[in-house]
């Protein structure tokens, strides 16, 4: 694994500029997870470095790039639908460059489909090719031919990539890339590659810069942040990295995702408890409450081990809230397996749940497993799970009413004259306030709740 620094491609920038009378405009849209959003910010940064401007509509664009997600079939279908809708734009403007990048572009079947069925797509490159984008665009413009790259795994970690962040107060900070877990339902290791950790000095330097620039909330990203440090010469784990970051002076909060239960340790819990800068909220995907299904998923922990970890966390971190991912209808899931999931959800008391009906991903082990459960059974189970969680979350939210909390004011609310603020525990409160508070911390008294949305007033 090699670490290289991004360098400005002067030759490519000059070749791109020579093809336009005025600076060309790029429209970039990212689908999927926070890692994809961060990749999209880097794509924008690299395009600006290459001489492009950015625009908010496809009609204004000289370059349209879709940065894609491959986690679920629905996400892929959505991308293909959006790409197909660009055909008329290409017909009206043959010089328009249309590109597809990201996780979908790492799958040979997707690249082949784009080649055959979407002849107006000019450019395809994978998740680890962002730094090569200027050279690809220059070649496309100079030679005029399509550049649809065959997916390859790249082991480099590219540092100092230009970035155009979408927010002035919330920032994504990747600490590692890829995944070694190979959960049987998951396509991520096949499209994101194997785990590669950034050196702590590089993470720390970027973190310190973000704090100095006034970012209030910094979210550490990785497919499995808890395995951070594997493969580095430095002897360091995720808890050690958090300790280093918390020594940086400033006013900020640290969040992180995603955490794999098999690598979450008491040391990590103790580190969170010791540092108020780390938010009192943990997203810890359990996926199922059935040991049999967890084994079929290749998750490497039991429901009992998961419960023990949560008990320890609740003891050590007062006010901790939890969220999780759950897959309903995994191949072969029985009613007994599903009941075990309901029992676990009821016992843990998640503040938030992200629930998904199993989505078959070609190339994963689960795609070859017998799946006798009907779609109706799966949707019925999903409805029951959501009903249970609504009951739990409404109770937890109502218990917060009357307290006064610090929130990061992050957006305009749904009600005119109101703003939304995010609590340390990841819930959102709406309250009347001046828009000048956006991006700042505020003290808010919680006065009520509307579903999972809290209502409040400035304290």
Number of β-strand runs: 21
What is the level-2 CATH architecture name of the largest domain? Alpha-Beta Horseshoe
Structural class: alpha/beta
CATH topology of the largest domain: pyruvate-formate lyase- activating enzyme
Count of DSSP H/I helices: 14
User: What radius of gyration results from the CA coordinates?
Assistant: 23 Å
> How are the strands ordered across the major sheet?
3-2-4-5-6-7
Beta strand %: 15-25%
Helix percent reads 25-40%
Largest sheet: 6 strands, parallel
pLDDT < 50 stretches: none
Task: Give average pLDDT, whole number.
Answer: 94
* Count of separate structural domains: 3
Shape: globular
Task: Give the N-to-C terminal Cα separation.
Answer: 51 Å
Describe this structure in words.
35% of the residues lie in helices and 22% in strands. The protein has 459 residues and is an alpha/beta fold. It folds into three domains: 3-148, Methylthiotransferase, N-terminal domain (Rossmann fold, 3-Layer(aba) Sandwich), CATH 3.40.50.12160; 157-398, Alpha-Beta Horseshoe (pyruvate-formate lyase- activating enzyme), CATH 3.80.30; 404-458, OB fold (Dihydrolipoamide Acetyltransferase, E2P) (Beta Barrel), CATH 2.40.50.140. It has a six-stranded parallel beta sheet, with helices on both faces. Strands 17-18-19-21-20 form a five-stranded mixed beta barrel. The N and C termini lie far apart (51 Å).
Q: What attributes characterize this protein structure?
A:
single chain, 459 residues, alpha/beta, Rossmann fold, pyruvate-formate lyase- activating enzyme, OB fold (Dihydrolipoamide Acetyltransferase, E2P), 3 domains, 6-stranded parallel sheet, 5-stranded mixed beta barrel, 14 helices, 21 strands, 35% helix, globular
